[in-house]
Amino acid sequence: MINEGVQSIVLGDVEITRVVEWGGPFAPALDIVPESGAEVWKDNRDWLAPEHWDPDSDAAVAALQTWVLRSGGRTVLVDTGVGNGRERPDSPHFHHRQGDFLARLARAGVRPEDVDVVVNTHLHGDHVGWNTVDADGEWVPTFPNAQYLIPAADDFHFGPDNAYGDGLREDDRLIYEDSVAPVHRSGQVVLWDGAHRVDENLVLESAPGHTPGSGVLRLESGTDRAVFVGDLLHSPVQILRPSCNSCFCLDARQAVASRRRILERAAAERELVVPAHFGGAGALEVRKHGDGFALGPWAAYTTR
């Protein structure tokens, strides 16, 4: 369902490479996007299946992936997946997971010491896991030379000052302690709020709702545009029905407002929309359609 080769696309002066940690059926579709309604999945079966939906099991298909951007002479990672060997009792898919992500990153031509910037769009466990690795029983930064850009509002919400997400899930404390706190201790974290320019091509902007500090990364180079939206979208059905949140969104009203705002701009400016978890080609353009949106062309990669 997801090409295992190294997939790349060039926008302006920026090369984007997709590194997939895992992909496949994840959970029942209506568990992931509860308000979407079964009919939207069935009515769009011809293109949702098999890359975004498995009709036989009624499971939404998802990908865990990192986007590697080579921009301005630097290597930037957008989100870092689940990681290996994590205690995640609330998340069976992620609990004690073992995978070969670093080998996949190497196949894309990236060694840990080559990474200059890590962008965590937000602090859920499937976006920060490879921030760190286990070194003789201690969690240490995976990317020793990188600056880690973390939304300040998420750092507060999920950190000790707000009792690890108000103490609602044990996973939130574990995620912060093994994947965020170690990069704070190493002095590699830069907290940002509102907007933060990464380089001449890349700007982070707040898009709260999914989490308090969720952000998007905008790319503008020459005439090309893209926006890395993290978990603003979990499934393409949310493009068709942008008022439908995922089950993971913490502030439903704010998440809908952010989703509509980002999709409106993407449609107007012909931005390539790059969500964190789409299967298939993983990225696409959107078009305005009445009061909502329609799918435009999917990303066209070169594969090696």
What topology does this entry show?
Elements lengths: L6 E5 L2 E15 H4 L5 H6 L1 H4 L4 E2 L4 E13 L2 E5 L22 H7 L9 E3 L5 H4 L3 E4 L2 E4 L5 E5 H7 L4 H4 L3 H16 L3 E4 L2 E3 L4 E5 L8 E7 L2 E7 L6 H4 L11 H18 L2 E4 L8 E6 L2 E7 L3 E2 L1
Parallel strand pairs: 5-6, 6-9, 9-10, 14-15
Antiparallel strand pairs: 1-2, 1-18, 2-4, 3-4, 4-5, 7-8, 11-12, 12-13, 13-14, 16-17
Describe the structure.
By secondary structure, this protein is α+β, with helices and mostly antiparallel strands. 24% of the residues lie in helices and 33% in strands. The chain contains ten helices and 18 strands. It has helices at 29-32, 38-43, 45-48, 101-107, 125-128, 152-158, 163-166, 170-185, 237-240, 252-269, and strands spanning 7-11, 14-28, 53-54, 59-71, 74-78, 117-119, 132-135, 138-141, 147-151, 189-192, 195-197, 202-206, 215-221, 224-230, 272-275, 284-289, 292-298, 302-303. The strands form four sheets. Strands 1, 2, 3, 4, 5, 6, 9, 10 and 18 form a nine-stranded mixed beta sheet that branches. A hairpin with a 4-residue loop joins β3 (53-54) and β4 (59-71). The protein is globular and about 50 Å long. The mean pLDDT is 96.
Straight-line N-to-C gap: 17 Å
Low-confidence stretches: none
- The radius of gyration is 18 Å
Structural class by helix and strand composition = alpha+beta
Overall pLDDT level: 96
Q: Helix segment count?
A: 10
Give the overall form. Answer: globular
Could you give the count of β-strands?
A: 18
Q: How would a crystallographer describe the biggest sheet?
A: 9 strands, mixed
What proportion of the residues is helical, as a percent range?
10-25%
Assembly state of the chains shown = single chain
Strand content: 25-35%
Report the order of strands and helices.
EEHHHEEEHEHEEEHHHEEEEEHHEEEE
